[in-house]
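Justification of resources, computational component.

The compute hours requested in this renewal are based largely on the per-chain cost of generating structure records like the one below. Each record pairs the submitted sequence with a full structure-token output. That output is archived, and it is also reused by downstream analysis tasks.
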Amino acid sequence: MTNVLAITSNPESDSMTNAVARAFLDGARAAGAANDVLDLLDLYEIGFNPVYGQADRRHYLGEAPMPADLVPVQRRLEHADVIALVFPIYWYTMPAMMKGFFDRVICRGFAYDAADSHPLALAGKTVRVIALAGGSQDWYVSSGLDAALRNQICAQSLGKYCGVQDADLTYVGGLSMGNGDPERRQAASRQLDAIRTMGAELIRGAAAERDD
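The structure output for this chain reads:
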């Protein structure tokens, strides 16, 4: 059994961001994942506080326990085998809510050890970063931003510190906020199909590994 968690960062509950997350989970469901192993965590819906404060700093320094508001979120991460981080790109990087998730939740003492920084709770998991963008994936590659994002998020943050060896970044591109043009909607729909396929393939791949 493979537990799947999709985490979203968008203030609108009916946003394309959440539609992408649901498509990812729908794909996992279509590949045989049961509803009780599929989890959608909307950071806005739970009222997540992204601001790194004094309680976070005291915990980092070993002077206080983990801030209480982080524990339920961390438990959901621990329970998951496959994690999708879904967010729109703001100013060529992740939005403040998702950055706060990295700052506060994926922290010392949970994701990596306080003494020697070896990976802890996320080690060995599969993570897919799904970025929603106005530009195309080709543009992000040609501009150098794709390489920067992959290095920052996948290689360094998730790989080096958290021990996530299977981390990848994909784009849902060509989007325009509030644009209902039929051609754009059709293009977006095709990209949702690709995200469903991604979710399904990850579940099938996990099942094949268990069979081996």
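The beta strands are 4-8, 38-42, 82-88, 126-132, 166-172. The mean pLDDT is 92.
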